[in-house]
Amino acid sequence: MSEPSVECMGVYVVPCDDCRWQEDLDNSYRSLGIFDETAEYRGRVISIALVEVAVSGADSSFDVGEFRQTMERAPNAYAQVAYDEAFLSEDGSTVVEHLQDRASGISGGRITFFLHYYDPTRPIQWSFGEFTCPAPRPMPERLARLVPYQPI
Hints:
By secondary structure, this protein is α+β, with helices and mostly antiparallel strands. It has 3 helices and 10 strands; from the N terminus they run E-H-H-E-E-E-E-E-E-E-E-E-H. It has helices at 21-32, 39-44, 141-146, and strands at 5-13, 46-56, 68-69, 80-81, 83-88, 95-98, 109-118, 124-126, 129-131, 137-138. The strands form 3 sheets. Strands 6-5-7-2-1-10 form a 6-stranded mixed β-sheet. It has a two-stranded antiparallel ribbon with strand order 3-4. Strands 8-9 form a two-stranded antiparallel ribbon. The longest helix has 12 residues, at 21-32. It is globular and about 45 Å long.
């Protein structure tokens, strides 16, 4: 069996005009007492991003719920985790299955998930280490249609 690998196919900015994520992020850092020291970080994060990856060679220890990204200077408990994961067809044209109820038992394929407070300068962790992604781009119509953002 080959080594598990992940390729980040893209990170897409999710438009959300009425979301209050930036305010929530600011309040989190105020409560931690590190608001001023994190101004640069808070200025570069994307409130909501959709990440599209291709996973291959994963074994039974792979769990889509383990995609996560830590937040600068915040405790690990504040790490952002994959949300509303979906397994797509190989060409990315259809949703095969929504994965929030079945996080494990998948050996690979094309997967999308949302991350709040995505920082383009930090890696994303997964079951087998970490990886980096290309620069964020606008959300393509294909993904906006297939996996629309549902606020939590």
